[in-house]
Amino acid sequence: MRLLLVEDDTMIGESVLDLLRAEAYAVDWVKDGEMADTALRTGSYDLVLLDLGLPRKNGLEVLRDLRTRRDRVPVLIATARDSVRQRIEGLDAGADDYVLKPYDLDELLARIRALLRRASGRAEPIYEHKGVSINPATREVSVGSQAVVLSAREWAVLEPLIARPGMVLSRTQLEEKLYSWRNEVSSNAVEVYIHGLRKKLGADVIQNVRGVGYMVPRA
Ligand code: CA
Questions:
Q1: Ligand 1 centroid from CA 76, angstroms
Q2: How far is the CA of 145 from the centre of ligand 1 (A)?
Q3: Residue 68 belongs to a domain with what CATH number?
Q4: 94 alpha carbon to ligand 1 midpoint, in Å?
C-alpha cells in the first residue's frame, strides 16, 4: 500500500518513515502543506498521514482542498494530545480518524490498518480463500495448517490485492505499492514477487487477468 506522510518535524518524520517502511508500505514523505498539495494532486495514495501544524499551508487547508476536489483518499490526522478543538476541526473538515502526538507507534499502525481495511470495503480483518488464510494485522499467513512466511516485498504486492478481492490491479498499480520516489523500479519486479507468492500460496490465490493485471478471488 502506498502512503503519503506529511510531517515537517524531521526527527518525527524519520522515525515514522522507518516504521512504515519496515511494515512494507511504500511511503512518500513531504514536509510542508504546499508539497502535500502537489503530491496529492499528482500521486495516487491509499492513505495520508497528515500533521496539521505545517509550514506554507496548514494541514486543515490541505485537507479541505483535498475534499473540495472530491478526493476520497483516507486521511489520518495527527494532533497534539491537548488539542481537542483541532481534532474536531480536522474530523469535520473530512479526516477519517485521528492519532495523537507523540505517537504510540503500535496504535498508529493499528489505525492505519483499520482505515485501509475500511477504505477497501472490508470490515473483517482476515482474508480466507480455499484454505489460504491471511491476516494483515499480524502478517500471519497459512495454507491449510501450514504457516507460510512471506518476504516484505511479497507482502507489499499481496496486501493491496487482498484488500480488494475481486478487483484487478495492473502491474503499474502494484509497482506503485512497492516503491516510493527514492527507489528504482526494475521492470519485472512485480512478476517475480507474484511468482514467489504463487509458489508459497498455490496458483489459485493470485489470478492473472490477461492483458489487465492481477486479482485475488472474493473470499
Ligand atoms: Ca508540525
A1: 14
A2: 47
A3: 3.40.50.2300
A4: 19
The per-residue pLDDT for range 175-218, each reduced to its tens digit, is 888 877 656 667 788 999 999 999 999 988 899 998 899 999 88
H helical segments located in the chain: 10-22, 33-42, 59-68, 84-92, 105-119, 152-163, 171-178, 189-201
What b/e string do you get for 95-124 counting C-beta neighbours within 10 Å, with b at 16 or more? bbbbbebebeeeebbebbbbbbbebbebee
Give tens-digit pLDDT for 22-77: 988 999 999 999 999 999 999 889 999 999 999 999 999 999 999 999 999 999 99
| CATH classification at residue 203 | 1.10.10.10
Number of domains composing the chain? 2
Decide if pLDDT at 159 tops 70.
yes
Ligand 1 mean position, distance from CA 15 (Å): 14
Q: Taking the CA atoms of the chain, what radius of gyration do you get in angstroms?
A: 18
One domain, residues 164 and 147: yes
Quick one: cell of 127? Answer: 482474508
Domain boundary among 119, 135, 168: 119
29 and 114, same domain (yes or no) = yes
Question: Do both 16 and 113 map to the same domain?
Answer: yes
Mean pLDDT of the chain: 91
Q: Does 84 lie in the same domain as 136? A: no
Domain encompassing residue 111: 2-119
